[in-house]
Amino acid sequence: MRRALLALFGVAAAVELAGVVTHSTAVQWSAKPLLAPLLLAYLWTVRRRVDGVAVGLAFAAAGDVALLVPGRTAFLVGMGCFLVTQLGLLTAFLRHGRPPVLAVAGYLLAWAGANLLLWEALGPLRLPVLGYSLALCLMAASATGVSGRTALGGALFLGSDLLIGVGAAGVDLPGRDLAVMVTYIAALFLITTGWVAATADRAVPVATPAAGVPA
């Protein structure tokens, strides 16, 4: 079941990326809303409990749907959903372990530098982006206290959203949309599987038939 869910996630990811490359909104609608729920289902089969990562994936699914709708209002709704995602991940990661001080300092410097560079161009989005990006950077920093895989996932999540912020500031880069989705999909996968691996000792074991008892 777990492998099947990850395989379905791979299929959904491939379809989503094909939709981005072909600029097909219909294809993206058929695949993007499935990404986070498939990983959430995978997480549930292992841990059987609601934690910060599960909450984060649930709100990521809502944010993905919101960001498929054009317009500033939908963008802000999506940002709000992903803010809850970052806070959920941050809470889970901090409960697991303390991140290195240098990682926290480095991410805070990156947060300050990125907002300084984009401040003028963001216009009315300045304050929402300022708050959201702080939560994002703190999440990425806290991921370094869990495992190398979650740390990479947090960094890729930051990179994906930085590309979105650059676009919101009016700067368009070749292949930006594809890069946003590739890094985002990789981030979700690495964070979820990394969290599962790091908390394997807390997972709920699957019951097996006792000796002599028919399955």
Automatic annotation (TrEMBL):
GO terms for cellular component: membrane. The keyword Transmembrane applies. It comes from the Bacteria. This is Uncharacterized membrane protein YhhN. InterPro entries: TMEM86B-like. It is found in: Membrane. The keyword Transmembrane helix applies. Pfam families: YhhN. Belongs to the TMEM86 family. One of its GO terms (molecular function) is hydrolase activity. Keywords: Membrane, Transmembrane, Transmembrane helix. It is a multi-pass membrane protein. The chain crosses the membrane at residues 75-94, 101-119, 151-172, 178-198. Its main location: membrane.
